[in-house]
Amino acid sequence: MALLQNLLIRSFYAAVLLLAVLILNFSLMHLAPGDVADTIAQSAGGADPEMLAQIRAEYGLDQPFLVQLGRYIGGVLQFDLGYSYFYNRPVTDLILERLPATLLLVFTAQIFALVLGVFLGAMSAQKPQGWLSHLVTFISLFGYSAPVFWTGILLLIAFSLNLHWFPVAGMRDVTVEGGFWVQALDIARHLVLPMITLASIFIALYSRLARATMMEVLQSDFVRTAHAKGLPMRHVVYRHALSNAMSPVVTLAGLQFSAVISGAVLVEAVFSWPGLGTLAFQSIIARDTPTILGILFFSALVVIVGNLLTDQVLRMMDPRIRGRSA
Amino acid sequence: MNTPDTPRPVSRHPMVEAWVNFRRNWAALFGLVVLSLIVLAAILGPVLYPTDPFDMVWAPFSPPGAQGFLLGTDYLGRDLMAMMLNGARVSLMIGGAAALVSIVIGITIGAVAGFFGGLVEEVLMRFTEFFQVLPTLLFSMVIVALFGASLPMITLAIGVVSWTAVARITRAEFLRLKELEFVLASRAVGSTKFRLIFRVILPNAAPPIIVQSALMVGSAILFEAGLSFLGLTDPNVVSWGQIIGSNRLYILDASYTVTLPGLAIFITVLSISLIGDGLNDALNPKIRQR
User: Which GO terms describe its cellular component (chain A) (predicted)?
Assistant: First the structure.
């Protein structure tokens, strides 16, 4: 019951945040030089002031700011994010077409980074001066400092161009034919390098925090008790200590969703991954404002949903947080 | 009361003590030396090596060392050495300026929220949360795309989206400090709110903010590199990210035009992170006692 109530409160906050994103979006569009009428006139090969005024009246651009804002929000509530005059398609269609690719990249990279980061952190916490601990330090320094697009290009040069282990670009090979599993395997082969590249930033963060919390937890009384009971080492570390060290790492991971999406934009550009980042990049080059703002809205939505999910996972994992309200 | 036979500990200025601690950390010192060299190269490089980074000086894709061009030429036959040196200026300048913008915004919002509390804090922290929801790179891409890719606009676009961590840290420090005795004492003698915030509390909140600020410079450099890699940069200047972005289709012909500028970004940001870690150890009293 508490879980459900909390979910409702959180969802309400999420809705308010999304509304704020919409208002920001619309204000940006309003503040920027040039409007839809200019874009239409441009694609029609120019127009005189009279015709511009006519277009503005037709699209409601001559209405007061608040009226236009209300219309925009009303439209979004009906899944209408505007029309892209560059692609000649509704923005919502464009985004929904690209969203799955980005979600696949973002979520697999997050999970991969979490699993590997926690594993490395937990292993190295047992021997703070061991080689694995130094490896974690090295990985975290690299992950913090290397530009992610450069990491991607280096992996591309090594594993695609020289070793030919993985495809160079894209998400699927058009020549591959076959059933579901053949297609899935093809996508997985394309996914490996972008996923590792994107995860590299976050493996650094998670392994560092996991090591620090594990070192603290391993010193605590209940771990000593578990040792004293004569439980095997592995059982103590991976059952008792790890489940207690997990929640700070998951909390951190939840806070990283917006950073993961930012990273995904660059990774998608390197590997020509057909997701939202590539679409954002193309529509910025084309000055396609409705599409850019639609993407900003959708990525905020992904972040908010990601935060909600993390919160629920935390509550299910850790009984200490469950009682607390939002 | 001081009796003459108990020796008083030598009291040093906290910054002197921090430096003494910092000096013991060889990794941080190494970072400081490397960063100084890079800054020096950025300042003096284009003066001592006056080749125009936009000039076609030799055949495209000449490997490093060929024809006396130390780092070779790129796909347009431009001298990579000249591009790297000029790029260092832009990358460091925008990184530093953008970090400064975000630090000023972050400190102001965090300090006001932590100091006044109540409704002010509630509103400001919701505002911060709102900024944390927007993916920073996408947001600044939108700003640059809508308002133009001039250097000041890029600096602003990076600064405006990346202040949230500073604000959170500043607020936490203010919450911790504002009820302590020295603040109450200053309040009791009638200090103005402005004085309390900026002269009394802020200097005591400085250590974690300084560490975070050092890291901000590194992430702002990475941020600028990302934007200019995507081509969202002033077309009239060279920066490290932009060299990689414009050459990335030619990695088969000349991979060094991509790997070398990336290495420059990596080493710069790495040395800043090492300095940040060193500052953290030097300024953190808990670790100092060990």
Answer: plasma membrane
Whether residues A299 and B145 touch (CB distance < 8 A) is answered with: no
- CB contact set of B217 (below 8 Å; sequence gap of 6+): B95, B96, B99, B272
Q: Which of B134, B156, B244 is the best mutation test for A, with the most CBs of A within 10 A?
A: B134
- By percentage, how much of chain B surpasses pLDDT 90? 14
Domain boundaries, chain A: 34-80, 91-317
- B255 within domain boundaries: yes
How many interchain CB pairs under 8 A, A with B?
A: 137
**CB-based contact B244 A149, cutoff 8 Å:** yes
Q: How far apart are CA B79 and CA B40, in angstroms?
A: 20
- Report helix, strand or coil for A83: strand
User: What is the distance between the alpha carbons of residues B289 and A157, in angstroms, rounded to a whole number?
Assistant: 47
Cβ within 8 Å, pair B266-A21: no
Query: Is the predicted ipTM greater than 0.85, yes or no?
Result: no
User: Has residue B219 been placed in a domain?
Assistant: yes
Interface of A with B in 295-324 (CB under 8 A): 295-296, 299-300, 303-304, 307
* Residue B2 is assigned to a structural domain of this protein: no
Tell me which residue range forms the domain holding B196.
19-288
- The pTM assigned to this predicted structure is 0.84
Give the pLDDT confidence score for residue B280 in this predicted structure.
Answer: 79
* Shortest distance, CA A28 to any CA of chain B (angstroms): 8
Give the Cβ contact number of residue A268 at 10 Å: 27
Q: Tokens 């409007």 correspond to what residue? A: A35
Contact with chain B for residue A145, Cβ under 8 A: yes
- Whole-number percent of chain A with pLDDT over 70: 90
DSSP-H helix ranges across A156-273: 180-218, 221-228, 233-235, 242-255, 257-271
**Model pLDDT for residues A194-246, shown as the tens digit of each residue:** 999 999 989 888 888 888 888 888 777 887 888 788 777 777 777 777 777 78
Query: For residue B1, is it within any domain?
Result: no
Q: Which of A21, A141, A269 sits opposite B270 (nearest CB)?
A: A141
Per-residue pLDDT reduced to its tens digit, A46-74: 667 777 777 777 766 777 777 888 888 88
- What is the dotted CATH code of the domain comprising A91-317? 1.10.3720.10
Nearest-CA distance B239 → chain A (Å): 14
B1 reaches A (C-beta below 8 A): no
